Amino acid sequence: MWCSQAGAATVEPELAARLARETGPHRYPVILRLAQQPDPAQFAQKLQGVAQAQRGGRLLEALKAFNAPTQAPLLKELQTRRAEEVQPLDTVNAIAAHLGAADIRELAKRADIATIRYDVGLLAPSRRLMGDPCRPERPTPRQRLPKSCRNTAAAPATPATLARFDPALPASATLQLLGAPDAWRAGFTGKGVTVAVVDTGVDLMHPDLAGSFRGGAGDWFDVHGEQPHPGDRHGHGSQITGLVTGTGASGQTLGVAPQAKWIAARIYNDRNVGRLSQLHRIMGWLLDPDGKPGTADAPQIVLNAWGLGDRPGQCDTEFERDLQWLRAAGMHVVFAAGNGGPMADSSVSPANNAGALAVGALDGSGQLAMFSSRGSSACDARPYPDLLAPGELLQTTDRSAGALAVTTRGTGTSFAAAVVAGELALLVQAHPDMPLAQREALLRGAEGDARPPLARALGLSVRSQP
After folding, report:
1. pLDDT tens for residues 244-289?
2. Helix, strand or coil for residue 19?
């Protein structure tokens, strides 16, 4: 990490190393974070008396008003330098751009820039990009297609065939373990609650997921501008969404909160890559999905199945301010704790940042799963993760093939985080005015209470029978 002169910008180590290796004309994706930043305490005061669902929009409006005069001089210079892909980042008062090495060195001399960081590319979870299993790219004469592909009677998903929540259907084994059927019978199904899924996308054609899409004009955000409608070429986002809102087209209810609604942002492009700056843009979208501050459309819960997993045990505060704003707007910010176990002190950012609710995984015997990250947070030394939930071989939705009710079993802390997001949806419905920290504390439970987690959190006395 170096500074060009007193009062100038800090060029962070990864970018500095790249610049030192420069051998020719090359443009680097960077994030230029401005020195002048808004005071969170002052902005929190502006939200007093504003309804929860409108806080995000009002907050984003105030952030943009603060940022505009501070960003204007830098935007002008970037235009002069012919920077490419220039994008203001509202939640961190920064600007993303593609610049040459000489321009970066000159910009580092500016006193109004605090840091210049390489705009790191993130890869989607390890899973092959999925095509249509019924239409293989290279069919062979002896190839056997899945049974679902040979079912000529299967109809595409339409409003008439979408699966709605049916309380008469059995719940999956995981949901029975949690006590979800008792919660549903008591009237807590997630109705009226919105969960935002930040991952690979969501398959809108899946019968178990289509009916719970909120469906507004701003409720799907592909930061890359490649997919105009909700979709998921990968599958991971559809899998975790199923554990939140999945209904029962497969014969059993799959989601903890089957009457909650989902909205979604797609992190990764068609090449399976996303960047830090694009995640900052998604954080801004979460505050105001439709771009209209007066509309009450902010989600109550954000489910994040991503992280800087290549640096376990380190604290990276790149998204710390984003998380502050989401919490200030009244959102539970749920993160997968990471799959860095059994290594000790294997927390990952931003799940280990203040403001994130990091969720680790339990195995089938109710113990901390071997793969689940653990120890203490590298950022604030709190016990890590914050919560534990089932995360091994959970039955859930998968990417559909021609609108069929395809299911799979998922393992990992992403799936445990999805379970907790669903549990929080029921608690938001039950206690809409309760502070965030108090709701989250209900999920931690009390020692010696043998009731299922949801029955305990909701104060229910009856245990579900399989």
Report:
1. 999 999 899 999 999 999 999 999 999 999 999 999 999 999 999 9
2. helix
CA–CA separation, 301 and 195 (whole Å): 5
C-alpha 238: how far from its chain's center? 12
Nearest-CA neighbor of 327 among 198, 423, 437?
437
Mean pLDDT of the region 322-328: 97
pLDDT exceeds 50 at position 102: yes
Of 165 and 2, the structure prediction assigns the larger pLDDT to 165
Mean residue pLDDT of the chain comes to: 90
Task: Count other C-beta atoms under 10 Å from residue 152's C-beta.
Answer: 5
Distance CA 73, CA 53 (A): 34
Q: Please state the φ and ψ torsions of residue 52, each to the nearest 5 degrees.
A: -55, -45
d(CA 443, CA 417) in angstroms, rounded, equals 12
**What is d(CA 354, CA 377) in angstroms, rounded to the nearest whole number?**
9
373-406: burial string, b at 16+ Cβ within 10 Å, e else: bbbebbbeeeebbbbbbbbbebbbbbbbbbbbbb
More confident residue, 174 or 162: 174
DSSP letters for 288-325: -TTS-TTS----SEEEE----TTSTT----TTHHHHHH
State how far the Cα of 6 lies from the Cα of 347, in Å rounded to an integer.
Answer: 34
Q: Binning pLDDT at 50, 70 and 90, where does residue 161 land?
A: low
pLDDT exceeding 70 applies to what percent of the chain?
Answer: 89
Question: Using DSSP, how many helices (H) and how many strands (E) does the chain show?
Answer: 13, 19
Of 424 and 127, the structure prediction assigns the larger pLDDT to: 424
Residue whose C-alpha is closest to residue 339's, from 411, 413, 391, 410: 413
Residue 299 · residue 195 · CB < 8 Å? yes
Q: What is the mean pLDDT of residues 388-393?
A: 96
Spell out the domain ranges in the chain: 2-119, 156-458
More confident position, 159 or 375:
375
What CATH class is the domain 156-458?
alpha beta
A 10 A CB-CB count for 433 gives: 6
Q: Prior bond to 25 cis, omega within 30?
A: no
Strands (E), 200-318: 220-222, 261-266, 273-275, 301-304
Say if residues 320 and 92 touch (Cβ distance below 8 Å). no
**Shortest CA distance to 109 belongs to which of 7, 235, 251, 1?**
7
